[in-house]
Design goal:
503 residues; 22 strands; 29% helix
Length: 503
């Protein structure tokens, strides 16, 4: 068996840890079973947002007539869009090439599994196997689409975000599309295909579209989708799928009135949520524990229940966003490879993780919804301001009282006047949310244990201390510890800190 200082399974955000280990001249094994770069680059936020950006442009051009700009026959050149998309996705090969240049790094393409507590076996793509041991192991295998147990689905066929980006499409592939799932992934795909001219039907089990958003945001987004001709069926159970000619017919059952109905389309896209990529790891051969959903349990330092093993990103179930995974990776990198003493360690906090759904319009939030705040015991007050009240909003064409007049809703602690949550729906919500991300990240923080039973001796000591950390709003390092929704234009300003060099 070949021994390494660090073994990293998964090449998404975990590459941040790999970079830090290489800077410390550690020997590193980097293992990937798919394309290098992880979910974000290959089948997640980057390719979907390239589609979304083109769809946004179509919607903006069509709506520009209300400010006096007229354009006819707006169409989507799917071939050009696809070429640009794949130019970015194909950077995957450059990622592996970059790491192959390091003498202390070995890259492996294959499926990793644990054969012992700190032993990893890799079934390589060429049919051979590699056997490794490591002092420190980082798991960043991500998640994948949760496929429902729906009779007839497998026989009729379907697509997911993974399979859709598995090949390039020379033209818009569907005249009609059923999307199972009304969360962020389903809604983003609905926006893209609706803008491209596809007839889209969303079938959602929950009573709300985008159920993790504040209720007012969900209601607003539902109205926008319906106004654009998207057929949204809420509070539905999916019963079965069958083929009729060239169409796939989905039978649904209303959970409200008990009535059954059928919806039909050329294709079905399945997007009801994700599940962790843990089933291939054979964690039963380790001391790593998972929760009832299969996600790896981690504490605030990203430690697992196994000594010397950490987990980050979608695989730990603590918010499925690339910026959150980057945040966790930077914490691990800082604590393990920066040379800092434990009293300078960083830890993860999940109460201010921003989230953006890149639809038209965008929906963004950070912190608590009004209902969440009330359930937490706060006496809440809210403040709402619409786009139309600002000169720029009016210039964009928003009129007071119009059905598409976006807004920001602040949820405030009625006693302290502290902001508990910010919720925005409208153009560039992903940018407008950033000041609240920054504000809520600043100040003095005291460590809050996450899964108290998961604790290395160092973690126990830091909790007992208790460890505190002050983030000065003027410091460039505070910018580095503040999450920025990925991939928003806020990264242009917030990521400037990566180019800062201490003199």
């Amino acid at each position: 068996m070949k021994h390494y200082d660090v073994i990293i399974i998964g090449t998404g955000a975990a590459n941040i840890v790999a970079d830090a280990a290489l800077r410390e001249n550690k020997t590193v094994a980097l293992i990937e079973r798919g394309r290098f770069g992880g979910t974000c680059l290959n089948r997640g936020c980057i390719p979907t947002k390239m589609l979304v950006t083109a769809a946004n442009a179509i919607c903006e051009i069509r709506e520009a007539r209300r400010i006096g700009v007229n354009a006819e026959n707006v169409t989507l050149d799917w071939k050009l869009l696809s070429e640009r998309l794949w130019k970015k996705v194909n950077e995957s090969e450059a990622i592996r090439g970059y790491y192959d240049r390091f003498p202390t790094m070995d890259t492996y393409h294959g499926t990793a599994s644990f054969s012992g507590k700190k032993e990893v076996t890799i079934s390589l793509d060429d049919g051979t196997a590699a056997f490794l041991t490591g002092d420190r192991i980082i798991i960043g295998t991500g998640g994948r689409t949760h496929i429902p147990d729906l009779p007839g689905l497998a026989e009729c066929g379907y697509v997911t975000s993974e399979t859709f980006f598995g090949k390039a499409y020379p033209e818009a592939p569907y005249k009609s599309l059923i999307i199972i799932g009304g969360g962020p992934i389903g809604c983003e795909f609905a926006h893209v295909f609706n803008a491209a001219g596809t007839h889209v039907t969303i079938v959602q089990h929950n009573v709300r579209l985008l159920p993790k958003e504040d209720g007012d945001i969900s209601a607003f987004m539902l109205r926008q989708f319906q106004n654009r001709g998207i057929d949204v069926r809420l509070n539905q159970d999916t019963i079965s799928v069958r083929m009729e000619g060239n169409e796939k017919v989905l039978t649904i059952h209303s959970r409200e009135d008990g009535l059954s109905a059928e919806v039909r389309a050329e294709e079905i896209l399945v997007a009801p949520g994700i599940k962790p990529m843990t089933e291939l790891l054979h964690l039963e051969n380790t001391d790593v524990q998972t929760d009832q959903r299969g996600y790896i349990m981690t504490n605030e330092f990203l430690e697992t229940t196994a000594d010397g093993i950490w987990a980050l990103g979608d695989v730990n179930g603590l918010a499925p966003f690339r910026h959150k995974a980057n945040y966790e990776a930077e914490i691990i990198a800082h604590n393990l490879f920066s040379g800092m003493a434990p009293d300078q360690w960083r830890w993860a906090q999940y109460d201010t993780v921003p989230a953006v759904t890149y639809t038209y319009p965008e929906a963004a939030h950070v912190g608590l919804t009004e209902i969440q705040a009330q359930k937490a015991g706060y006496t809440t007050e809210t403040a709402v301001n619409h786009y139309s009240t600002a000169v720029k909003g009016y210039a964009l064409g928003f009129e007071p009282g119009a059905s598409d007049d976006g807004f920001i809703k602040l949820v405030v602690d009625g006693k302290t006047r502290h902001v508990l949550g910010a919720h925005i729906v409208g153009p560039e919500a992903s940018i407008l949310i950033q000041p609240f991300n920054n504000l809520l990240s600043c100040g003095t923080h005291t460590i809050t244990p996450l899964h108290e039973e998961i604790a290395s001796p160092t973690a126990r000591a830091l909790r007992q201390k208790p460890l505190t950390r002050t983030l000065d709003p003027r410091s460039v390092y505070t910018i580095g510890e503040t999450m920025t929704p990925h991939p928003s234009l806020s990264e242009v300003t917030m990521w400037t800190r990566y180019y800062f060099e201490k003199k």
